[in-house]
Amino acid sequence: MQPKQVNPKKFELTINKSQLDDGATYRVVLGNKAGECESTAELKVEKPNILKLVKGLSDVNVDEGQPFTFSCKITGTPKSVKWFKNGKEIDSSDERYKLSSNPETGEYSLSVDSSIPTDSAAFKVIFANDKGDVQSGAVAYVKKGKPKEAEARAPTFISPLKDVDIEEGDTLTLKCQISAEPQPTLKWYCNGEELKPSNRVVMRLALDGTATLRVMDTKKSDAGQYKVVATNPSGSLDSSCKVGVLSSDEMPSPPKFIVPLRSSDAPLGAKAEFNVKVRGVPKPTIRFQLDGKNIPIDNNRITLEDMHDGNWCLTIKEVKEEDFGTLRCVAENENGKDECEAIFDQTGGRKPKARDEEGYPPRFNVPLWDRRVPLGDPMFIECHGM
In terms of domain of life, where is this protein from (predicted)? Predict the structure, then answer.
C-alpha cells in the first residue's frame, strides 16, 4: 500500500495488485492544530467468476450392485450445473442418481448407491455462467457375470459430431469421441454414400476413441449430411451433422462499407440523393441518421431504396432547412456493424465550381478487399477510383 499526498488538500492510498485479504474498512484521519477529522470507506475485493476445470471426471469400473461416484472440481461459481447420461440430461428428481454440489469448495459429484447394467454409459457434466462454460465427461463400466464376458460394451458417443460451415477450398475436419470395448470399426458417409480413403479424404481413430474425418480442398459438392457409424460385437451407434461449403461471398461476415457516404450540398427545394454500397453476410439492415437521430422514411418526400448487390439510395425529393447536418449511415447484421458519415450543407451564394475545375486528390469508392479462391480457379482483383 502506498499513501500519497497529491496536493495540500488531496490525499490518496494506492493498492497495487489487490488481493482478497485487502478487503477491509479503511479509515483516514486528517489533523492540524485546530483539530482533526476522519472518513471511512469499505473495500470489497471480489474474485473473478471465471469457470476453470481443476479436476475432471474419471472412468469407473464396478461390478453390478456396487456403488460408484463421478466427482470433479472447478474454480468459479456456475449459474447452472447439468449432468447428462448418453447425451440425455439427468433429472435432479431421479432417485437413482444423487447429485451433490458445494459451490464454496467447487466440488460436484454424481453418485449411484447400487449399480445396474444400464448404468454402463457415458456421463457428462456442464458448468455454465455468464463468462462461459466448462465440461467434463467419463464412462461408467458396470460388469455383470464373469468379468471377461462383461467387458464388451456397445459404442457410445461421449462427444458427437457438430454442424459446421467452412469456406470453399479449406479443409473440412469432423471429430467425435466414442467409447466402446472392443474398439469399434467406423464407416463414414456423405449424403448416404460411404466415403473411402483417398488423396483428399483421410480417416483416423485414436486410442482414446477420438474419430477424425478430414476432407482436403473442399468443393461445393462436399456439402451435405455427414454420418459416422461405430460398430462392434455388442452393438452399433451413429452420429450425424450438417456441413455447409460456402463461397467467400457466402461466409458469415460483419458489414463493411465499400462505397461510403460523400459530403455534398444542395439548395432548398432541390432533390438530393445519397448512395452507399455495403457488403456483409447475412444481408445487413440499413438506416440513416441526421445529427444522431434516425431519419423517418415516409416513402413520399424521403425514400430509401434497395438497389441490389449491396447498393442503397436515400432520396430527399424537396430539401428543407432541417435536412442539413451530419448524415450517418449504419449497417448491421448478426455478425457486427459498420457506419460512415458525411456533411450535407445548403448550397452557398456562389455557384460551386465543378470538381474537375477545383481539382481534388484521388480516392477509392470501391477499394480492394480480401478474397479466397479455390486452387486452379481464375481470380479477378479490381478497384474503382475517382
Answer: Eukaryota
Are both 86 and 113 inside the same structural domain? yes
Q: Are residues 282 and 348 in the same domain?
A: yes
**Residues of the chain with pLDDT > 90: what percent?**
65
Query: Residues 75, 76, 77, 81: is their CA dihedral positive or negative?
Result: negative
The partner residues of 65 in beta bridges, in order of sequence, read none
pTM (2 d.p.): 0.38
Q: Could you report the per-residue pLDDT of 42-60, keeping only the tens digit for each?
A: 888 777 778 899 999 999 9
Judge whether residue 162 has pLDDT over 80: yes
- Is 178 part of a structural domain of the chain? yes
